[in-house]
Design brief:
The protein is an alpha+beta fold. The protein is built from 13 helices and 19 strands.
Length: about 425
């Protein structure tokens, strides 16, 4: 399908963009001022230095804004920028995997948003446009998605149908019950017991060692709540629309057929309540700090609701029976053995791993790009092997752990043939 040709019309970012960019730099520099610098008097000189940087930063940001423009010709998004070194970028619309509209805290107060494009093979957001008016960002997002499908841009915004909204109470409760977030409470209890039975020197050492772990666990909980606050999922003609965020709100669009795989996670303390978490892997999305924001399809929900959303994403809920590894695998995974399993049909592969946290991965066979048959020294003695299924995604891969070695080879042959058939069928439909 060929995208309609458009007359190239150059556009500029919002005039307040330089103010936001220079303000972010100043905030970062101010945060870098250490308490020691403030207490010994050098903080005053650093403050005057930062004040002197304001006109320089603002002037540089204004020059950068004046030299930045973008336009769409129906095939590519063109972005030209640079003050001393001129740079011209073209982003093929056919490579777009997803488009996010991000609203930082200061930007929301000014009615501005940033447009981030995730493309095939991109290690980070490609040609981010910061900043645009919120209405312009949403309109441009719809235009680019339509052109990526080979369609003419819609004259009016397309409506969306709300599917799921995660209550704040459920999000807070699930965060507290998550093992990583609950670690500070466990450490506090251990410290209380230590105070009763250990000498003072041992308690001091125990407190110091626990402090770093508690701070890290608190940071995990804080980041999750900030990223997933107000999480909602809507259905639109462009795909699923995910909206979430506390200080920085994000609107993500996941187009049809872009999901490389998903997993349903059930931590130990969630299973009594029937809660699960659903994460997806979209090819082209950046990893690192953005992974928490870009991989979550549903932060917490009852299993029935999660399965309904999985059916919306994959077209069906795989109804396969998971076969367990042989009994001799208990020497390698004694606690997880009852959980481990693998199953497949002509469309999907489903694997399950974990003990404290059940992790069920679902990968469409059409998305599988490679297989790896692995056998370590202990597995070799026990006549076991592990089969890995790799996709274009970053995080979610199906793993059939500790299978009988002969069974793993049969799985490799059968799944390879099924994957070739599904890829051939998908290419003919495309």
């Amino acid at each position: 399908m060929t995208a309609p040709a458009l007359e190239l019309r150059w556009r500029r970012l919002h005039p307040l963009s330089p103010l936001l960019r220079s303000g972010k730099i100043l905030i970062a520099l101010t945060a870098a001022m250490t308490p020691q610098a403030i207490s010994d008097g050098t903080g005053k000189f650093i403050g005057w230095g930062l004040l002197g940087l304001v006109p320089l930063l603002l002037g540089g940001a204004v020059l950068s804004w004046r030299r930045t423009r973008f336009g769409v010709d129906g095939v590519d998004l063109r972005v030209e920028s640079g003050v001393l070194l001129h740079r011209s970028r073209r982003v093929p619309l056919a490579r777009i995997q997803a488009i996010d509209v991000v609203r930082p805290l200061i930007g929301r107060a000014l009615g501005l948003a940033e447009l981030r494009l995730e493309v095939v093979g991109g290690g980070k957001a490609e040609a981010p446009l910061a900043y645009l008016r919120e209405a312009e960002a949403e309109s441009l997002r719809l235009e680019l998605l339509a052109l990526a499908r080979g369609e003419a841009p819609a004259s009016a915004p397309l409506g969306s149908t709300p599917l799921v909204t995660v209550p704040a109470g459920a999000l807070i409760g699930s965060t507290l019950l998550d093992a990583r977030s609950a670690m500070p409470l466990v450490l506090l209890l251990a410290l209380f017991v230590g105070v009763l039975v250990l000498p003072a020197e041992a308690v001091a050492a125990l407190t110091a060692s626990m402090l770093g772990t508690a701070v890290a666990a608190f940071e995990v909980a804080r980041r999750r709540l900030a990223a997933e606050w107000g999480f909602s999922v809507s259905d639109s003609p462009d795909g699923l629309v995910l909206r979430h965020g506390l200080t920085e709100t994000r609107s993500q669009t996941v187009p049809e057929g872009r999901v490389q795989g998903l997993r349903v996670i059930a931590p130990l303390l969630w299973r009594q309540r029937g809660w699960v978490r659903v994460e997806i892997d979209v090819a082209g999305y950046a990893g690192g700090k953005a992974a928490l924001q870009t991989s979550t399809l549903l932060p917490v929900a009852p299993r029935a609701l999660a399965e309904a959303l999985v059916a919306r994403v994959l077209g069906a809920v795989p109804a396969v029976e998971l076969g367990r590894p042989p009994g001799r695998a208990r020497w390698l995974s004694p606690l997880a053995l009852p959980v481990l399993g693998v199953g497949y049909d002509d469309r999907f592969v489903v694997t399950r791993t974990g003990w404290l946290r059940h992790d069920t991965a679902v990968v469409p066979l059409a998305k599988v790009q490679g297989f790896r048959w692995h056998q370590g020294p202990l597995q070799r003695r026990l006549r076991l092997a592990t089969l890995h299924l790799d996709t274009a995604g970053r995080d979610i891969h199906a793993v059939a752990l500790h299978r009988d070695a002969d069974e793993a080879r049969v799985l490799l042959d059968e799944l390879s043939a099924l994957a070739r058939t599904r890829r051939r069928t998908a290419s003919l439909r495309g």
